[in-house]
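We emphasize that the prediction below concerns an isolated chain of 497 residues; any contacts that depend on oligomerization or on bound cofactors are therefore not represented. The input was used exactly as deposited, without trimming of termini.
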Amino acid sequence: MRLSATVICLSALAGLAPAASHAADACTSMLQRLKSQLADATCFESADLTTTNPATTPANDSLPGLPPFAFTPQTDRATIAPSAAKREPITKVVPGLQIQARIASDPLGQARFLLRLPNDWNGRLVVAGASGTRSEFNGDFAWSDYLLQKGYAYASQNKGTLNLRLSTAADPQACRLNPTSQTYVAFYDNDPGQSFARWQATMLKAAQVAKMGVAVRYGKTPRYTYGVGTSNGGYQVRRAIELAPALFDGGVDWEGTFVDEGGPNLLTDLPPPLLNLPDTPPPYDLNGTAAKNILAAGYPPDITAGAVSLWKNNWNQFWEVTMCQWQKRLDPSYDTYGAGLANYNYYARLSGSDVGSELAAFATTGRIQRPLVTVAGTLDALLPIDHHARAYARKVEAQLSSRNDDDDHDRDRGRDRGKNRPAYRLYEVQNGNHIETYQDTLPQLELIERHAHAAFDALVAHVESNQPLPPNQCIPRGGAIAQQPVQAGHCASLLAP
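Result of the prediction step, given as a token string:
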């Protein structure tokens, strides 16, 4: 009785009151079959699963019993996507079924799951990662709308963690929002029992549950399953392609986070800009010592438009709070604001803390087992391209080269050369950056979203039809991924006029 009431209520919310009985039957069947996998599950059959329908993405703070900012779906979906006028358009209605739940096996009760099942299904499933500490609705604008219109079933998850809660400077787990802020927050990802290694486990569990849901809804498992994700969600895709070839047929990571206990990593990258950002209003003197130190640390040149600065935007929104969150999780004995995050020395901390082993526990290996495409911008001032996208590409190439040696031995035994070498590509977006909405005030930037979508389509053609993936390339400003690129390999300059 309780389940039936929940389903009918949600069906009405989705604008389907006349079909409530049918919706209740479909949802009741789904939830009954998935009850061992999901907890606190709700289900509704929707006239439109795209974000054109306001019921598709829940309101912020809509989960009962949680403080403000722990669950922020509406905010999360806008974090990685371009502003509304610049997103890839929604051109069709996608009716189907949506499930929202917790993953029942999660001992912390924070791992969340989303599944969208279009009526007009193309036989394929996409499982999305989540950026930052964002929710399972993080990809609604950037990925879900695009994929649902093509008929893909779409699943997502939250890396096993809720977002954050307001706190105070007295809280040893709290991080201030930037060096001059008086607002402190505590991340659920830093709570006892949490581990960044949960990120990869949650992605794989979501794929398993999503495949079960697809089989229940359509009577058969997906023919192909792909991973997509941005930032920390891109990291999740990389780990999925490294760890779970039985679950995934390929993936696209957009600005994925590189994790390596030997460096580079965020703990090596973020202190230099925090220490050296000039103490003057932008535009900064890029020939000054402080700016040269930031550039030498791998960061792209600053760009400005009036009073707006790419470096200052990142200083205000990401550099210190991200560094704080990672330090408190991975090296909690460090004196965050006494010794100072700008003075943090990762390599010096290796001998006096467990930070190296903490990073090693969730490091990317580069040993991909399915085709993978990375799309990254040259002006990423949060995850500098040479320390993240290119660093991962170097690690993949090293692993693939070692497999070539194995293939030589196989060839000597009469086996096919190259059987162990899945395709990998890095597509660099000239003047692309980490936050798409920055392009609204910094017109020198290029949007990455459409290139990520094109990379996904190219990956699917490669996996399913053996079409050659376009080579590694620099996508010029206003250009597109090409089979015969103007500039193969890396972009010659991080900033182009």
